[in-house]
Amino acid sequence: MPNDTKTICERAIKHIIHQGALAYDTKKEVCRLRTSDGLACAVGGVISDENYDPVMELGANPNKSNRTRDAIIASNPDLTLGPEAWPALQTLQQCHDDADDVEDFVSDAKTALAAHHGITVTL
Prior knowledge:
The chain is mainly α. The chain has one domain. The protein has helices spanning about 5-20, 65-75, 85-100, 100-115, and strands at about 25, 30. A two-stranded antiparallel sheet has the order 1-2. Strand 1 and strand 2 form a beta hairpin. It is globular and about 35 Å long.
């Protein structure tokens, strides 16, 4: 498992911890890469403002969306992200979407990354 996959996952988790909240559109009760009040989800947290495009909200899955992958790569030029990064980020996104709060997200994310991707996150 390349170290850069672990690094991008840690960045996403740290983003949620620093933000102190999950990113949901309260009107539609769905996760958003970016919410109207400035929050970003796990995947949205590793996409810079310069590389964010609202069109990505329609298909934000990094495992399936080239636009989202391209934005993540452009936002993290110091990393070399291979094909194993996308399912790991999708796992993080699923943990975000299923979490009740930040603490729940962090716990579930660490467990899921270790179990499904062999990534041990230490924060």
